[in-house]
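Operator note (shift B, R.M.): manual run for Transketolase requested after the automated queue skipped it. Running by hand, logging everything below so the morning shift can see what happened. Input copied straight from the record, untouched. If output looks odd, do not overwrite the archive copy; leave it for review.
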Amino acid sequence: MPTAEPLVAAAAALSKEELLRDYRLGWESRQASLAGRKEVFMGKAKFGIFGDGKELPQLAMARAFQPGDFRSGYYRDQTFMFAAGELSLQQYFAQLYAHPDAEAEPATAGRAMNGHFATRLLDEDGNFRNLAELKNSSADVSPTASQMPRLVGLAYASKLYRNNPELSELKQFSVNGNEVAFGTIGNASTSEGMFFEAINAAGVLQIPMLVSVWDDHYGISVPAEYQTTKQSISEILAGFQRNAPGEQGFEIFVVKGWDYPALVDTYLRAAEVCRREHVPVLVHVTEVTQPQGHSTSGSHERYKSKERLSWEEEHDCLRKMREWLLSEGHASAEELDQIESETKDVVKKARVAAWDAFFNPIKEERDEAVTLLEKLVAETGQENALHDMVEHLRHNPTPIRADIVRTVRRALRFVRETRSGARRNLQNYLEQVLAENADRYNSYLYSQSEQAALNIAEVPAEFAPNAPQVDGREVLQACFEANFRRDPTIFAIGEDVGRIGDVNQAFAGLQDKFGELRVTDTGIRECTIVGQGIGAALRGLRPITEIQYLDYLLYAIQILSDDVACLQYRTKGGQKAPLIVRTRGHRLEGVWHSGSPIGMILSSIRGMHVLVPRDMTQAAGFYNTLLRSDEPALVIECLNGYRLKERIPQNVGEFTLPLGVPEILQEGTDITVVTYGSMCRIVQDAARQLAEVGISVEVIDVQSLLPFDVQHLIADSLRKTSRVLFADEDVPGGATAYMLQHVLDEQQAYRFLDSQPRCLAAQPHRPPYGSDGDYFSKPNAEDVFDAVYELMQEADPKRFPAIY
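Run finished. Output pasted below as returned.
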């Protein structure tokens, strides 16, 4: 594999000013790390994790980073962000203090701990900015190696922009696919499966993905001999090295983290081949140090030997750069001393400014609250708990907003029997600050733009009078074809999606019509299929990523939960990835092909929409809505519905369904049964049988679980029927409990009930193979009949005598 052989021309091209600029930036970053640790220990920040020891490789990487490029990294990349011009020292400290203002802390608005970097890809209206002119960083995630699946998609987008002529006009996102996706990861995190899956996917796809491994020999306290075979990620990946230009594979470089000229040369070479040839590259940066240890949670002296600590001090990259600058005559000792001294002052000023900007508004809010509280004290006297609360707040040297609100709420509790202007003023103040803090800490779980899914206008489906009955899969096929023709940014990837048109044929023939770049087969790698979609969506494309069966979503649930679902939230509207994950589940047979883990999904991916259409026409309407919105979603199709007959709407690519609006499939007066997906047919069958014994059932298909019944239509039904059964195929306490909570708690429909609400779920185990396994494991029509009948028997035992 290539090593960092010096390219004299590249290194010599740097002027003295450029060299000293890098040295200054390196020391500013180091001083920021040192100061950040002290701030945590002083109690001004909750936790700190820093990039000290990795300054030089990140300075070198920044030299190869160009407008339009993307970073997908991890929480030690502060020097790179400084050097790329996408992070200021004051913003760095603002994040350490958790400043909840996107102007002061543009990466996460204080929502992620320090070291989690992002640039704002969207304008104030939620529209993409001109990403081709910007240096971009996708929003960091903490779980180790979770940045890797998204990295595949960021690089894959360049391949699509270069090779699909239909995308050539989208200059806002790409210039001929010349953009490189830079990934960074620690050596220990390369042990994660996501890393290996992403590396393999990039090698197959041949995409401009440049991965840097910062190798400091440890993963917290665990050394490399416990982490990596041969203690070298580049050695064990040597088989990925391509043998000659034009062949499939990687370029792999190994370079020491303290060798500044070799680092600069390596990154210029690596980025050039990546950018020009769309060849993935691995840069293994060895002999990296970590002067302050892993984080503020502990000291590395506990697990590193004295010899190792001495070696790290000797091989500190900034010390080595100083030695190199002096030996090559680029600067004098006095010049370098001055730079080092000046960086301390620069960092101190930024730190103080960031603290003042963060803390002064809180003090002002505290003072306003104290003024209002004093008026209450004046009414109640000095010798009581209210007075003590106010004085404690007044003299708190470092209050947080929770202290203010907590005191106000307790004060109002204290004067709950008082009616006065002071109390009303304090109540108004509380309402105001709660609204402000809701924006600071609770906003942007979903899109707040005009393109949000809930803002997409409903367009009813139109059917010709003589519309033929076709297989449900043909409805989806027609829907996808119409959307592919309408929007060239839409593409689909997944196992068996391309040549055979997916295992259920909804994409059949579309690869022939639109080409392999639009409808593409992938390997068996659910996590990076989703990641490929996330990264591409971040770059303005509209991916549909297919997970073949719902059970296999577990391979990707972590990346869905930790990355795309919380993306808008953790950037406070700064980034979006309108990814559609398409899958299918319910009512097949066998432990691993019958999944309905809906409760797990609902709890894991808040921030995505979860849609459960009962048939393929409903699914098509949801796809049409989603492909016009700017939000991510999971669509779970009914696995047993592809061969059932439906009519194709005349406007199959245009009609839309609203999210969060249930549909009444059958009106009734005695009881409401709430369900979704494949259970709809079972419940309707049971309703017909119940009608034979005089029970009128209202059947409601919720259709959309996230969001859920935004108009409270189910509560309206209970007002009429006074009884309810929630039925689905999840385990007990799963989605049935979720629906019950929404209807009884949020919609307060308990007021309308004359009988205990009931839930009918599957058995707590996975369904065994075979039709009998399905029947005895998941709710069937007889189970629904019996559950409803028992409710009615309790209400009128004479009319409905016991069956069993």
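Quick read of the result: Residues 152 and 199 are 8 Å apart (CA to CA). The chain is about 40% helix and 10% strand.
Leaving this for review. - R.M.
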